[in-house]
Specification:
Length: about 120
Amino acid sequence: MQKFIAITLGGLLSQALWAENPQNKQGFDTTRMLSNQAVGHNTDTYPKGKVVKTMNVSGYTYFQFSQKGELVWAATSVMDLKEGDQVVLMKSFPMTDFKSKTLNRTFDKILFVSQLDIVK
């Protein structure tokens, strides 16, 4: 049993260290893009646009982006987003009348994002 736990923990640790490598992130991004193309995902249907405002608060990145002339708010896990970045929200779900206690404001509509691509 101890040997199994040691092997499992060792495997998880090596995966975590491997995933932290910046070269691996580029590989993951390329794989995701090619997979989406292979299964016929059309990125034209996803929310996308240019980031116009960003702030990191309590483990989240809140950002506003311009989509077809409309300003849209979104939130995701903390990440390095900059004003001017072009983003595609691959997986998101909308919420209306969302009250952020940390920002002390209510968003009429906000998208919560679990997968985001920054277009280079």
